[in-house]
Prior knowledge:
By secondary structure, this protein is an alpha+beta fold. It has one domain (2-65): Beta-grasp domain (Ubiquitin-like (UB roll)). Helices cover 31% and strands 24% of the residues. It contains three helices and four strands; from the N terminus they run E-E-H-H-E-E-H. The chain has helices at residues 18-25, 27-34, 70-77; strands spanning 2-5, 8-11, 38-42, 59-64. The chain has a four-stranded mixed sheet with strand order 2-1-4-3, with helices on one face. Helix 1 crosses helix 2 (27-34). The longest helix has 8 residues, at 18-25. It is globular, with a radius of gyration of 14 Å.
Amino acid sequence: MRIFLNALPLDLAPGATVREAIEAHDAAMADQVAAGRARVTDARGIDLPLDAPLAAGSILRVLVSARRTSAEDADADA
């Protein structure tokens, strides 16, 4: 089935999840989402859980946070 992730077409197996779509597109992006440095929304801007099943034609956007975590702030001062 074809979905769209950040405006790019991506062909996945039927029943694929949000997590599987992101991993298929970009492993580093999947790591950012898993670490909470990015979030996934649908075409309406509603946050999606990583285990949500996708339907053909789904539109996903991955939004990377510009905010740094406290651990990253500590590293910046070192």
